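Hello support,

Our group uses your service weekly, and this is the first time we've seen a run hang past the timeout. The protein is Putative kinase. I'm not sure whether the cause is the sequence or the server load. Input pasted verbatim:
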Amino acid sequence: MTQTKPTLHFLCGKAAAGKSTLAKSLSAAPQTVLIEEDIWLKALYADELSTVQDYLRCTRKLRSAMTPHIVSLLEAGLSVVLDFSANTVKARDWPRRILGQVDADHVLHVLNLPDDLCLERLRARNAKGEHPFAATEEQFHALNKMIEFPTAAEGFVMREYPG
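Update from on-call engineer: The timeout came from a worker crash unrelated to the input. Re-ran successfully.
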């Protein structure tokens, strides 16, 4: 019987592009675990998060703490969906380091939707009040300036979702 390797899924895309929705869908596969950055950040650092720099500081701590756990899950044969931002070359170093420690496949899911669609979704999401964080339009634009969409030169297996 052929045994498949576990897969590490990670995502790149603008705020409200559908990363979390896709992550939940991917995690519906058998033997797949979803780890959601926003839930952990809110639980651990809600009082410390008001700027992009706060987010970067707190997510570094969270990623460092989560790495051994993610490696253990992959080593146990479970696939992992990281609903964490992989929006810059530096941010993608984290899953690359994880993959360097385990025998696992990977897919970088890239959602490149137009700003106007993402902003429409962001407004709707904020109005519902169900998301752990309600990003402002100003924060949306600030975060977008930081995005470095991946290229083939980075060596990741990519699945792209154009807008």
